[in-house]
Amino acid sequence: MSETSRVASDRQSVLSVKDLKVVFSGFKALKGVDLEVGENEIVTIIGPNGAGKSTLLDAIVGKSPVASGHVYYHGKDITNQSPYEVARMGIGRKFQNPNVYNDLTVFDNILLALKGAHGVFASIKSKLTAGKRDKIISVLDRVGLLEKGYSKVSSLSHGQKQWVEIGMVIAQDPTLVLLDEPTAGMTPDETHLTGEIIKTISQNHSVVVIEHDMEFVKQIAQRIVVLHQGEKLTEGSVNEVQSNPKVIEVYLGREQIDAA
Ligand SMILES: Nc1ncnc2c1ncn2[C@@H]1O[C@H](COP(=O)(O)OP(=O)(O)OP(=O)(O)O)[C@@H](O)[C@H]1O
Fold this sequence. Notes:
Elements: H1 3-10, E1 13-24, E2 27-38, E3 42-46, H2 53-60, E4 68-73, E5 76-77, H3 83-89, E6 91-94, H4 106-113, H5 120-125, H6 130-142, H7 158-170, E7 176-180, H8 188-201, E8 206-210, H9 214-220, E9 223-228, E10 231-236, H10 238-242, H11 245-259
Helix pairs in contact: 4-6, 4-7, 7-8, 8-9
Bound molecules: adenosine-5'-triphosphate.
Adenosine-5'-triphosphate (ATP) binds next to strand 2 and helix 2.
């Protein structure tokens, strides 16, 4: 057993994906993938375009239908539950493009995302309790936006908008946070800060991150899962994955050529 697998098995299981298959009109996008995520763990998924990374997250949250296999969350079978049910149970998902209210302040965006919020107008006009205010401030602190609370989201940089959305996800108190390419389009400084935000978030949540930027992967990664053509090629620590000849052949070699 590798060092990283041992660390994973020592943690309380939050998510357990078993032999998951997803088929789109006869095309096998996932051909039997396993994935384990432990409490407060950061698992990073890498792999070439079309490997099935987003499909795996979609299948976990009930957005893509699972043909066979299972998704267990805290030991409960949640396979093919509706996205609404999955979110309600405590799995938060952030997509690639920020889905924020540009004309509202950062603070109000987080307020709208809080559990129990009912519609934009009702949420903003309802009395702000001290509990809600403290909660929003704590979220803003964790995503590095404490000083931007009263700025309109439209005035923020692309990276800051991504952090608002990460804040909106964690405001719902998920146990597990799924992030699909959170650093896409970010500057190097924003990318680095995002890594620090994710490490902070992992103190209270388990996190699964799909990512292409290997510098960023090295910054955050505890365990890396490599997907290729709908299958898990390997998993392990940064060093284990980077020195794996199969990974170099199908992915890292390609990334290095693309970066040159
Ligand atoms: N709704 C769909 N209908 C048909 N085919 C799909 C659908 N969603 C994904 N696919 C196909 O499944 C395969 C896996 O796609 P997926 O988006 O999961 O890959 P990915 O690893 O996330 O790639 P990228 O890094 O480019 O985002 C691709 O060949 C894609 O074209």
